[in-house]
From TrEMBL:
<feature type="domain" description="UspA">
    <location>
        <begin position="1"/>
        <end position="149"/>
    </location>
</feature>
<dbReference type="InterPro" id="IPR006015">
    <property type="entry name" value="Universal_stress_UspA"/>
</dbReference>
<protein>
    <recommendedName>
        <fullName>Universal stress protein</fullName>
    </recommendedName>
</protein>
<comment type="similarity">
    <text>Belongs to the universal stress protein A family.</text>
</comment>
<dbReference type="InterPro" id="IPR006016">
    <property type="entry name" value="UspA"/>
</dbReference>
<dbReference type="Pfam" id="PF00582">
    <property type="entry name" value="Usp"/>
</dbReference>
<keyword id="KW-0963">Cytoplasm</keyword>
<dbReference type="InterPro" id="IPR014729">
    <property type="entry name" value="Rossmann-like_a/b/a_fold"/>
</dbReference>
Length: 155
């Protein structure tokens, strides 16, 4: 194992994923890259005509600067997360689009040997109806995936 790609979402539980993934990578003597995917927000700027009685965003002009600012906030987040590890060799990558596809595409480009992800506690019904990023990645990947269970505080 030479390269470990760690998927990071904007959630405080990501700290656990980052640390466990980083520790694993260091034990393997692997290079580390943190990836954060910003879902495609561009469609909010589309000016569609009224449909199904919904006026949508016709009356509201979405400032493209807002999208740029959102990307900058996300970039700052992932870079701060990497700096938190106090290891200048850790790299970062920002991607746009569907999360699973973006992670798989970059894993291939970067030639990752392993992907590290957190798995959130979703209900069985949620998983059946929409699946999860982790399950989509597991279905399509050809490299090992290390899953870290993330659960909300036990009640």
């Amino acid at each position: 194992m030479k390269k470990v790609l760690i998927g990071v979402d904007y959630n405080p539980n990501s700290e656990k994923v980052i640390h466990k993934g980083y520790d694993l990578a260091k034990k393997l003597g692997a290079e580390v890259c943190l990836i954060h995917v910003l879902a495609d927000v561009g469609y909010y700027g589309m000016n569609y005509p009224s449909f199904m009685g919904y006026e949508g965003y016709n009356e509201m002009s979405v400032d493209l600067n807002v999208i740029s600012e959102l990307k900058e906030v996300a970039r700052n987040f992932i870079e701060t997360a990497a700096n938190h590890l106090n290891d200048p060799s850790v790299s970062t990558h920002m991607a746009d689009g569907p999360t699973a596809s973006a992670i798989l595409q970059y894993a291939k480009e970067w030639d990752a040997d392993m992907i590290v992800l957190g798995t959130h506690s979703h209900s069985v019904l949620e998983k059946i109806l929409m699946g999860t990023t982790a399950s989509h990645i597991l279905e399509k990947t050809k490299i090992p995936v290390y899953l870290i269970p993330i659960k909300e505080k036990d009640s």
